[in-house]
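Batch manifest, entry 17 of 40.
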Amino acid sequence: MTEPDEGMTLIVKTIGRLVLNFILLFGIYIILYGHLTPGGGFPGGVIVATGFILLMLSFGRRIALKKFGDLAASLLDNLGALAFLIVAFLGFVGGYFFLNFIDRGTPFDLFSAGTLPLSNIAIGLKVSASLYGVFVALAIFGKAIVGGDRTGKGKAEGEPANSQEQKG
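Output type: structure tokens
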């Protein structure tokens, strides 16, 4: 007997493959333009994380972890936190924490907010990697804690599968 394919059906995989790039692009747009429009690092990071969660739900855990593994998520999480701290501490060059040390430019332009876009990028990295990491941890450890499927096939031989067999 052959092992069934991981993930969902062919239809879900095809639609997931088509939609994934749009989700990631929209999340990056929300992160980059968060100082001009509603959005920013947190909502953009959540959107990017849902793109990677869609990848895992559509194609299965093994394929998703090959594309974007838990080690990569941890590294991006730490990189986002480090970038945010660097932006904050560079304000000390001008005198105090989180000082806007970049010229603000023309209002309503992409480069018109000083250090705010840099902070949004750092927060977007941190949030997207953290949420994806939490989802991966729940997917891996949740399956390990359950110890098998819900039909009782994961039980040891001789153990009752449900409460009906225990009474009888």
